């Protein structure tokens, strides 16, 4: 956690009022700009100092070997890893004879502002050279949400206290040296200089660099063009070499004069298109951007964002930090998914190289719900990408001796990239998570074309996987043995409740949807018999329950295991996985991240209210939240069982994960799924929002620390706003036809007139306790959040 | 399996009547000579052609990195791997101008004979050069069982059809090029040229080469000296360079003349001794060997072996192949263990580089029982080595957060070298296996000094491990969760019956032995309370039982899992681990190697006779024997439950593993534990031998294919012979005081007079079936071994 705040708390901006070199790598992630296709870390314009330079193109990857000490059948031989592509952000500046570098001379002012309504990163600098010449530099950077291939920078320099000679060098640089490529020399070798030059052209104010990735053989192009405004006498040169393109502008600025360079950057890549085709593609994108011009791009950007916020914004009274954080989260989720367009949404978006740039189940489970209800076309795109990788998933299932499709635990392009199968391959729940995202999206949009073209096949192939993965035992019970659920401190267990419940939904829905579209079902080879076998497996699905303790074991036998010795585990030994072997973690009752509790959120109808409260209390005592995916689910279920202040605490943790660098690894990129949790904790937690089968349900209830919560969302073509205060909830239809909603179990129709309903009071159950030292930080100061009688689990 | 036999069947020899170049790598393993300290593969004297050159020193290893695709706490960073040390076997020959090479000229005769009474490998060759000069070459090779540092070769050349010019070059060669160092370039790099020269000296007929291993920093010396007999005129030269020592003898042989070179080779290594000290050590060993002379070494060797066979020999009438194989097995076990002297006994002995030269639990569980009853001092030495590694095992337990000692799954010097923890670290049963070997050895020898100095501490530290590894559940049952039992097609399961029963014995015996030696117990910090806690855990030990099926599940929940689809698994998909992922194997009922069945052998008193029969039948239907460790245990338990012909079939499989190359990897070294199974299948199987608490029990019964079985063994200072025929068993005391024995449950005292007892007839139960295609090969031809009504499991 950060000692003193790095960023000001502001409802619509993230502002760094002074340059924090000690937080540079973190702020590069925080200030990353992306549209889901192109991602640029928030590196300083002049390139140095840097924490980690980063420019990424969605799904442009390099291969690296996966070495195993002991071989095994079905182990993937190589992994895909995100590549730092040609850096188009660079604009260097020479003032008189001094290169502008914040580490030299004097920094009189340095402010960076990420504006979440404008979609820009603005930097304002006042700097004196060692020879005491002062200049003011303003740069505004954007990655266009409307023109997918385009980023742009408006860079301005003006003298403050006398004439200066200035030279700016606007560059494209490929194969930048990167710090810290890891310990494995073979991996480092594979990632050093990943780009092989194919072409470089400089002309007028433009440069195009084309490269191919060394092992994966993908082709990319980066191009730049400029508009230069300044004094009459300017010397402009442009040049290129295989890895560098450079535009140099030299001039002299008198007081009152200004040099302004607008840099348009275009990126493109392809695994199939020819060099000339790709060259023309980026050139055309540049032409379009220049035609729009800087102001035009800014305008489009704001309009795009205005539209987004009109169906997505969340307002909070009482917790300014979370107010900022939820918008920050929504903004970055939009950035990660807006224009991914049938490519994956990575765990870090395009904000850093963490997790090798891979996508995991987090996207379907935590990120797509947010997009589904705020920007549904982006959710459809992400699922369409999964659908496009079906051939690979079928192939993988075949390798594993299974029917249907087995989607990869981690990947960039669709091939399994997990090198540790107990936590990778065995995590089959990802298939049900994808199915769940399909079901949610179709429910939220009634998008029948999607259901027919994308959804049905995803549901059918994952249902086939589950049917083959499980088996009926001699008592006719359907069991799914030897799989790994969401909690990574257990692995390869039988009948994980989360997995079995999610698989049950997957099997049932696949049968229903297939029977709804007999033409497509026939094309997929689904017979009535096969659909019946899915319904049968779903009906017989084993859901273990420990009668003795009155709780659901996370997996069969879990509650028989020894409890982790939390008392003997000091704070310095977290995260546990760095200090204890998997062997020890797997065999004991200790939970890295919500698993059974996530099942209660996503499959709530499978549990009684009493079971929910007991289970929640039981798992609170075991859950250490060594994963950033955990807090949001605990927030949602804490709210559902009436632990509103505890829910608020967990909400704070998920929402502030990156702004406060709570996991101390924001440097590697943002935790997109955790950021999604801010929205989920508010909307599904305090709003109690659940939706299925066309009924949108709410059960709003606020914690003491939040006096008002208002959120907007989209559902079946409508835009809604729900405003919650301590005593009541107001429902408003902002657009679309009337709709039936449910408020705390009571259905009503919402038309043009707002509807207000009272909020029932929560039961005052004692607060459950967490493992010592693993309590979430309190959102409200003072003893109010700690009930003195709260040390035993609920129930 | 070999198409036509490579070796003649002979009761005391293994004879290769003609050179089989297609089986060269296999015969290098078969003809390996070793004394447990020095091991020489049966490479041809002239070095080429070769399958795999190999000269090994017990525990002389190199380090190689263990690369992981995803890091994990407690993963070992490097492995130890056996090194091909300086080759002292080489004697090259030039006849006229032609180098002797069996691939050129004409081979008129080529015979190799391993003599298991003489302890020598004799090669007789008649060869014509391409220019048609014929010579007869005889070489006799030995690795001395009495002079541990010494190997020797007597090499003779004589002309057959006219005078020849001959040059012999007797060499020491370090850093030989090896074929196939594996795919991983870093591993290959670590093992290429592993020896760094420190010194080389040539003088008279002697050479000493000293080297140090590059990464592990161990020092070794190899030396040779010669005695040369031949015509009057011989030119003798000796020379050395860093990696080569060479003695050259040039002469002309007239018909009737002969050149005879006796080569004495001495090896030594140390991690601590200085260069001069080690140099002097091998020089002194050479001096002693030269003093004994070739004939003296031969005589000592035969006497040593005569003594061994007098307490170990097994005679069989009716199955000549198994007769040869059981002696072959005993001979190689003796070679592996005789002079290991407080170093480990590797899975391959010193016969090849398979499994990196590591030792596993096989040694304690399958090899030490044979040595315990035939050469008990070697068993004591092997356990003393384990005791010497206790500090490392304690350290490993500490790394894993456990009490006591955790011995490595695989190692050379005591450090854990397993790179896949579910099948390595989690195989904690190795600790109980070591304890079991201690208990067996002490019972068989009454060696109180060993018990006090070695045994007690091993028992105590392993008991501490088990006590900490398990826990009492809320019902007071003691559970051991998340461990891997012997069967490698399951992993990380709860309450593996084998593990729990072996741990129970370990805990109980540790308490008993500690209380028997209060002085030592106090020194080890064992209080009466601690011992009581072990007894309590043992008494409460969980032994799961499936009431529904009436069998013991291998581990908790095992019998709920889906059965492997054997019908759909063609013969080309075995061994399964090469064709199916662990994921799939672990979650289904399929058994690589006896696990529950091994528990019934080693902890027989924990099962009723009826349970044994039912369990045996159940697991027969699931066991595919993809491990060479399985057949012997199935032989023993088949015999116990009265399936005598089936036992004979399994006996054949374990006994002929290497002579018939059944697993197709004898090239990498012999399967020492499988070879031990020939003895175990006969003595513990058809002899029904079990021993514990001073009572030696027999329950002999022969299969139809064996008309007479006689075996010798040692027990508590006695030598015994048991002779079994179809109708009766004869017990004879060959040496030592009278002793109480048990015959089929009836106790009697055996003194100087032989005792004869009738053998009861076995119940004629139907033969259980194995997975299709996995039936053992029948030892007796024809339908006699196949009961037509035998297709369903017993019971």
Automatic annotation (TrEMBL), chains A, B:
Entries under InterPro entries matching the protein: 6-hairpin_glycosidase_sf (IPR008928), 6hp_glycosidase-like_sf (IPR012341), Gal_mutarotase_sf_dom (IPR011013), GH65_N (IPR037018), Glyco_hydro_65_C (IPR005194), Glyco_hydro_65_M (IPR005195), Glyco_hydro_65_N (IPR005196), Malt_Pase/Glycosyl_Hdrlase (IPR017045)
Glycoside hydrolase family 65 C-terminal domain mapped to chain residues: 689-750
Bias (Low complexity) ranges: 779-789
Keywords from the UniProt entry: Glycosidase, Hydrolase
Residue ranges of the region described as Disordered: 750-795
Domain Glycoside hydrolase family 65 central catalytic: 327-680
Keyword Hydrolase: yes
Any one GO molecular-function label of the UniProt entry: hydrolase activity
Residues annotated as domain Glycoside hydrolase family 65 N-terminal: 16-270
Protein's UniProt keywords contain Hydrolase: yes
Family membership: Belongs to the glycosyl hydrolase 65 family.
Protein name: Glycoside hydrolase family 65 protein
Species the sequence originates in: Actinomadura alba
């Amino acid at each position: 956690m950060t000692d003193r705040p790095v960023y000001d708390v502001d409802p619509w901006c993230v502002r760094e009022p002074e340059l924090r070199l000690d937080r540079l790598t973190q702020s590069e992630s925080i200030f990353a700009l992306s549209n889901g296709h192109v991602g640029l870390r928030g590196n300083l314009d002049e390139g140095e100092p840097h924490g980690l330079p980063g420019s990424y193109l969605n799904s442009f990857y390099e291969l690296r070997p996966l070495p195993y000490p002991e071989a095994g059948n079905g182990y993937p031989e190589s992994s895909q890893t995100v590549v730092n592509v040609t850096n188009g952000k660079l604009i260097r500046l020479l003032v008189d004879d001094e290169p502008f570098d914040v580490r030299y001379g004097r920094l009189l002012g340095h402010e960076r502002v990420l504006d979440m309504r404008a979609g820009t990163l603005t930097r304002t600098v006042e700097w004196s050279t060692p020879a005491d010449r002062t200049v003011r530099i303003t740069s505004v950077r954007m990655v266009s949400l409307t023109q997918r291939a385009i980023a742009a920078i408006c860079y301005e320099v003006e003298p403050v206290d006398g004439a200066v000679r200035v030279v700016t060098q606007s560059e494209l640089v490929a194969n930048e040296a990167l710090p810290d490529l890891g310990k494995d020399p073979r991996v480092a070798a594979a990632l050093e200089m990943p780009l092989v030059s194919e072409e470089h052209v400089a002309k007028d104010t433009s440069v195009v660099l084309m490269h191919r990735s060394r092992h994966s053989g993908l082709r990319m192009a980066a191009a730049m063009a400029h508009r230069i405004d300044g004094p009459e006498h300017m010397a402009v040169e442009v040049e290129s070499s295989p890895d560098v393109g450079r535009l140099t502008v030299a001039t002299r600025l008198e007081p009152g004069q200004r040099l302004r360079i607008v840099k348009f950057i275009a990126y493109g890549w392809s695994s199939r298109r020819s060099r000339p085709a790709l060259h023309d593609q980026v050139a055309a994108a540049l032409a379009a951007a220049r035609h729009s011009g800087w102001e035009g791009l800014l305008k489009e950007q704001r309009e795009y964002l205005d539209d987004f916020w009109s169906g997505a914004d969340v307002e909070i009274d009482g917790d300014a930090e979370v107010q900022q954080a939820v918008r920050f989260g929504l903004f970055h989720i939009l950035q990660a998914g807006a224009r991914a367009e049938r490519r994956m949404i990575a765990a870090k978006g395009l904000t850093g190289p963490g997790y090798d740039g891979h996508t995991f189940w987090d996207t379907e489970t935590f990120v797509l719900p947010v997009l589904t209800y705020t920007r549904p076309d982006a959710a459809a795109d992400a699922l369409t990408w999964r659908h496009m990788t079906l051939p690979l998933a079928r192939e993988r299932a075949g390798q594993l001796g299974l029917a249907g499709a087995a989607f990869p635990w981690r990947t960039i392009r669709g091939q399994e990239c997990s090198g540790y199968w107990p936590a990778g391959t065995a995590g089959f729940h990802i298939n049900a998570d994808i199915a769940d995202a399909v079901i949610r999206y179709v429910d939220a949009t009634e998008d029948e074309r999607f259901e027919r073209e994308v959804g049905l096949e995803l549901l059918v192939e994952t249902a086939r996987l589950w049917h083959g993965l499980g088996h009926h035992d001699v008592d006719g019970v359907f069991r799914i043995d030897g799989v790994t659920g969401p909690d990574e401190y257990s692995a390869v267990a039988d009948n994980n409740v989360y997995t079995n419940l999610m698989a049950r939904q997957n099997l049932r829905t696949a049968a229903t949807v297939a029977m709804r579209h007999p033409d497509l079902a026939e094309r997929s080879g689904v017979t009535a018999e096969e659909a019946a076998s899915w319904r049968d497996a779903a009906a017989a699905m084993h859901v273990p329950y420990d009668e003795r303790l009155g709780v659901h074991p996370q997996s069969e036998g879990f509650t028989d295991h020894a409890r982790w010795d939390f008392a003997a585990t000091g704070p310095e030994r977290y995260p546990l996985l760095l200090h204890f072997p998997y062997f020890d973690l797997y065999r004991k009752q200790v939970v890295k991240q919500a698993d059974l509790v996530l099942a209660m959120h996503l499959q709530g109808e499978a549990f009684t209210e009493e079971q929910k409260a007991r289970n929640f209390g039981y798992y609170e005592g075991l859950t250490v939240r060594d994963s950033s995916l955990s807090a949001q689910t605990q927030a949602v279920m804490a709210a559902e069982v009436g632990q509103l202040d505890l829910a608020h605490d967990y909400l704070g943790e998920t929402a502030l994960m990156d702004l406060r660098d709570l996991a101390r690894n924001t440097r590697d990129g943002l935790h997109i799924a955790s950021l999604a949790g801010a929205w989920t904790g508010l909307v599904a937690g305090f709003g109690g929002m659940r939706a299925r089968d066309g009924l949108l349900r709410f059960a709003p209830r606020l914690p003491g620390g939040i006096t008002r919560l208002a959120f907007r969302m989209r559902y079946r073509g409508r835009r809604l706003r729900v405003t919650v205060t301590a005593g009541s909830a107001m429902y408003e239809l902002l657009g679309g036809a009337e709709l039936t909603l449910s408020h705390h179990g009571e259905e009503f129709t919402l038309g043009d007139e707002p509807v207000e309903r009272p909020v029932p009071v929560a039961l005052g159950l004692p607060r459950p306790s967490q493992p010592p030292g693993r309590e979430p930080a309190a959102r409200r100061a003072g003893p109010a959040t700690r009930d003195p009688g709260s040390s035993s689990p609920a129930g």
